[in-house]
Amino acid sequence: MDILCAYCQTGFQENDKIIKDDLNTLCHLACYALESDYIRDIDTYKNILEKYWFYQNLIN
Q: How many other C-beta atoms can be found within 10 angstroms of the C-beta atom of residue 45?
């Protein structure tokens, strides 16, 4: 199962810098369009998947 960027609708690569917001939405750092107050984490796609338990079933 691939996760797509909430804004540009393209898939993530392991080393893409992404944002996880208040609603656990993932998007590319360059695509993010809301206020920074909603950002909860910025890291690589791979690290985000490993860091949060609710993404564990998406790790291949």
A: 20
